[in-house]
Amino acid sequence: MSNNTVVLRLARSDDLAQLSKIEQTCFSNDRLSKRSLKHWLSAKHALFLVATSSDAIVGYGLVWCLKGTRLARLYSLAVLPAYRGQGIAQVLLSELEQLTQSKGRAYLRLEVSALNHAAISLYKSLGYQVFGAYSDYYGDGSEALRMQKRVARYDGKGIRLQVPWYKQTTEFTCGPAALLMAMYSLDTKVALKQVDELAIWREATTIFMTSGHGGCHPVGLALSAIKRGFTAQVFLTQLSALFLDGVRSEEKKQVMCTVHDEFITQAHKLGCVLYEKPLELDQLYKLLKAGGRVLMLISTYRLDGKKAPHWVCVTAIDEHCVYVHDPDLDASQQAIDCQHVPIGLMEFSKMATFGKNRLRAAIAIEKLP
User: Which of 6, 104, 188, 265 gets the most CB atoms within 10 Å of its CB?
Assistant: First the structure.
């Protein structure tokens, strides 16, 4: 694609020197290093476009497509000063949006300095909307606005909930973190603090898993919600002991079975409703529409290649996607990458199945009147 004498093409490895020069010219803070640019040139989930004039690179745009989701992030956009005002940034961004959509992504997100009024004006003119901010985000201490645009060509209609995002503080407390988000969105008296996160983990843990600390049992998490003034329903494809496949030690399995049996006993005593069936998407929609909050167990395989059980909090659903808050923020991500993450309905159904037994688990909670 071209804009007068400017031509767009995919970036190549031999563009590295020119890209590094553009980075040095266009940015005074938060520059991408030459090593980082080299990484993005070969990254599997990157969309890297350059704008050329007379074979010289005059600008570039870089998008990162988050694995396993319908979300992409504009990582960087730059045009040399001498070529600004010619619409090159708009053409780059429009082409990136089309490529993003072709990769099955529904949303393109970005961060921009609150002081960069020209860039903000550009993004707004192209349909991007502000949906949050980061304070003290850049090296100069300036605030970053969070903006996004739905690049898929459909208007999603569904249920969207106001749910805060909370980052798990340990590698084994995704369940408590997801539950805290859900409870806080129904009752702001709930504290989003590590002490409460760990307290819930102590109450709901399976004790053992494949290695390291045990994760949280769905019934255990539901009981924690009930103890804090909520009602809870649990949807499970099996009511026998969970997560035993990855544990070799018979002694550990025996402990996990004992924990499971006690959770089931307490569920009957405390009025936790147990369904020996999966939570289907149509029922998920109805629960959210009725004002409930839902936690779902997913396999992280399609996110990070690891087959680990992981709890997320559902924040919305429409005719195309389920949206989740993922409490697990790794070193390569920004918080924005884990919030209201859109996952295609078919993809989500696959992600919400774990292990050889194809376990499916979900917890629905409501605040007691």
Answer: 6
Q: What is the pLDDT of residues 231-256, one digit of tens each?
A: 999 999 999 999 888 888 999 999 99
Q: How far apart are CA 171 and CA 16, in angstroms?
A: 36
Q: What is the CATH number of the domain that holds 142?
A: 3.40.630.30
On the 0-12 / 13-18 / 19+ scale of CB atoms within 10 A, 198 is: middle
Q: What domain range includes position 191?
A: 160-367
Q: How far apart are CA 335 and CA 268, in angstroms?
A: 38
> What average pLDDT does the chain have?
90
pLDDT, one tens digit per residue, over 88-113 is 999 999 999 999 988 888 889 999 98
| E-strand stretches of 39-169 | 46-53, 56-65, 71-79, 107-113, 129-134, 144-150, 158-160
Predicted structure pTM score: 0.72
Instruction: Tell me, yes or no, whether 94 and 231 share the same domain.
Output: no
Structure token digits, residue 215: 């994760």
> Do 6 and 146 share a domain, yes or no?
yes
Question: How many domains is the chain built from?
Answer: 2
